[in-house]
Structures are given as C-alpha cells and as structure tokens.
C-alpha cells in the first residue's frame, strides 16, 4: 500500500473540507472529532451550493441519512432529499431514452458505446440514483456518424450547429455533436472521438473489441471496458481541471473495482495519458482517501503527475465553472496554460503545428469559393496578422 501522497489543501473552506470528509467516508463509517467540529460551524447554504456545483449531492444525501445527527438542520436534509428525488427522476428518464436509442441503433446496425450517464452510474455506484447526469454521451464510428445523425433527427432531435469548419478540420479539432429533444428535454452528445485534438487514443474497433454489456436494462447496452473507461474518465476530468468532484468520485469508485493495472498502465503510456492517470490517482487519494496499491506505483512515479494534481486545486478551491462562458479573464488564462501543461511533448508539437492549419475565422475574414480553400494555407499568416491588428478573434 502506498501512503506518502500529500499536497497543500490548507486554503480550502470549512464547507469544502466537510464535503471532502463526507465523500471520504465508506459505508457505515463515522466522522472524526475534527470533522464533527466542522459540522457544527458550517455555513449550510454555502455547503448546499458546493454540493450542487460538484454534482455530488446524491452521495451527500446518503451520508447525511447515515449520520442521523441533530447538528444538521432540517432544511438541509429536506433540500438534499428534494435534489436527490429530482435526480432520480432525471436518471430514470435518461435510462428509458437510452433503452429506446439502443434499440433503434441495433435496428440500423449502428455500433454505439455509451460513455457516461445511467450505464456508468449503475456500474460504478450500483444505483443510477447515486450519480448525476444531464445528458447521454455515446461513441460511434466515424463512418456511421451521418447515419446516427439522420436517425436522431427522425426521432425528433434537433442538431446544435455550433461547429464551424473549413477543410474538414472538425474531424480532429472537435470530438462530438450535440442534439436536443425539445419535448423530452433530453440532450445527446454523439462522439466520434473520445477527446478533441491533440490526443492519441484507441481506435473505435479496439474499444468495441473490449466493450462490456450492461445489465441495467433488458436490451443490450454496450459501454467501455474497465481500462478504457478509466482512460476516458481521467482524460475528460483532467481536461476540465477536475473542477467537479463527481468526476473524481467516479475514479475512486473505479479504483475499487478489479482493474488490470499493468494493462491499464501500458494503455495510458501508449496513448500519452500516464501523467494524467497519475494525476487522477494522486487527487483521489489525497482528497477522497482512495486507497493506493503497489500496482499503481508506475503511474505515481512521475513528478509531473503530482504537479498536475496540485494545479487542479485552483479550480476546486475557487469553485470554477468551466461550462458557463465567458470565463473570468484570470480563469481563462490559467486554464489555457493548464491545458498546455497537460500535454506530452509530442502533443505540444501537434498543438502548435495545428495553428498552421486554416481556421474557420480565415474563411470568415476572406470568403473564397470552396474549390479555392487550399489557398488558406499560404494566406493564413496574413489573415491572422490582419485580425490581430484589428483586435478581432484570431
């Protein structure tokens, strides 16, 4: 067992420390004396806001029920009970939609892997009501993306055309399309990649060969193999600065499962995610008391993994929400630097080289017929400089 994992969290608020203490607790365990003191001096309104921000209120609701202490005001228990009930209804609705979509995909011979949502809640938590989710994420082969889009539109979904593209750069700059169902109020994200560029990841066929079948519903629902799921969850959480503790709680739950750590370590190193994998382990151990095993040591050997874990405290301490732009200037600047620090040397080179490839802004600056779009390659430096001098988006 590895126990020498530490970094500075002294500036965390009392509310955040109590939240982490409750997320550390295993079923049937009790709070320490220091944690009981926190419980009596807490700003409960701030605590509720924090639990909602981090999307961990179902777990906190369960912990509060276990504690059964008069130090918790009734309005707090009532608020968490209401949020838990609403989330249960949401997850049941998503489960029903997932079952319908899976059936329709099978009819069209579309190979779909569900990435998150109810299927992950059932796998990691054993109960769909104990994890929050606002949408369904699924991965399909690039060759079936158009068929998937047509199917969703035929089912009443509307595509969110937020992606601008030139010379098909959407295929690697982006990684998913978003669809909304106006009457059901459900959002579906259709991925053709796990992550946006620059990223190296297993092919769809590799992921499909290692897929698992969920027992959540009677119809076949396929999702990622355990090691592939770890790769996806850590890459997604890291890209968002682990700004929601729910993603880290997912990792703790996955760490408690039967993971093939040598195989996972090889997978992460092959795809340049070993430092990010180590980052997730450091954070789960330090913040959520997840146990570290000797098999995990190769992922914890890198100092960069520990530094990256320290870097995420910026997001957690400030309760940063990366999903509601525009971001404050200091957060935007920090996040840009953080994302660059996440990359391997090879990814950094790919990222810098990508600026030589035309952007949609170039086409808006100087519209050309499609047959002449190749001219944006030599014109790009001039168009970039023109926008820069006029303080336009570059």
From TrEMBL:
InterPro entries (UniProt xref): NTP_transf_5 (IPR039498)
Superkingdom: Bacteria
Record's protein name: Nucleotidyltransferase family protein
Organism: Paenibacillus soyae
């Amino acid at each position: 067992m590895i126990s020498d994992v530490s970094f500075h969290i002294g500036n965390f608020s009392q509310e955040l420390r109590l939240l982490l203490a409750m997320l550390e607790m295993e079923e049937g365990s009790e709070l320490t004396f220091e944690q009981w003191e926190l419980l009596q001096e807490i700003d409960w309104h701030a605590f509720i806001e924090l639990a909602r921000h981090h999307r961990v209120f179902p777990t906190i609701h369960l912990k509060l029920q276990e504690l059964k202490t008069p130090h918790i005001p009734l309005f707090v228990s009532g608020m968490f009970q209401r949020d838990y009930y609403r989330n249960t209804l949401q997850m049941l609705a998503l489960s029903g939609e997932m079952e319908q979509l899976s059936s329709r995909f099978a009819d069209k011979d579309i190979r779909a892997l569900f990435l998150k949502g109810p299927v992950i809640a059932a796998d990691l938590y054993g109960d769909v009501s104990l994890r929050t989710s606002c949408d369904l994420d699924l991965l399909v082969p690039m060759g079936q993306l158009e068929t998937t889009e047509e199917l969703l539109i035929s089912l009443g979904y509307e595509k969110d055309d937020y992606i601008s593209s030139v010379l098909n750069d959407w295929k690697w700059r982006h990684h998913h399309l978003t669809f909304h169902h106006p009457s059901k109020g459900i959002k579906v994200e259709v991925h053709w990649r796990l992550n946006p560029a620059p990223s190296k990841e297993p092919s769809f066929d590799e992921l499909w060969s290692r897929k698992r079948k969920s027992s959540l519903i009677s119809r076949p629902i396929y999702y990622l193999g355990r090691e592939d799921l770890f790769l996806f969850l850590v890459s997604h959480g890291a890209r968002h600065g682990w700004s929601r503790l729910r993603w880290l709680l997912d990792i703790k739950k996955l760490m408690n499962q039967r993971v093939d750590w040598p195989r996972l370590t090889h997978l992460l190193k092959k795809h340049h995610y070993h430092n990010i994998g180590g980052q997730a382990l450091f954070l789960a151990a330090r913040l959520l008391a997840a146990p570290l095993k000797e098999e995990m040591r190769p992922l914890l050997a890198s100092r960069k993994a520990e530094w990256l874990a320290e870097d995420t405290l910026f997001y957690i301490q400030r309760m940063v929400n990366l999903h509601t732009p525009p971001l404050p200037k200091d957060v935007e600047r920090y996040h840009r630097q953080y994302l660059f620090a996440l990359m391997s040397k090879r990814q950094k080179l790919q990222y810098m080289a990508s600026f030589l490839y035309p952007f949609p802004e170039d086409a808006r600056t100087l519209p050309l017929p499609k047959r002449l779009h190749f001219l944006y390659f030599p014109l790009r430096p001039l168009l970039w400089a023109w926008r820069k001098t006029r303080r336009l988006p570059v």
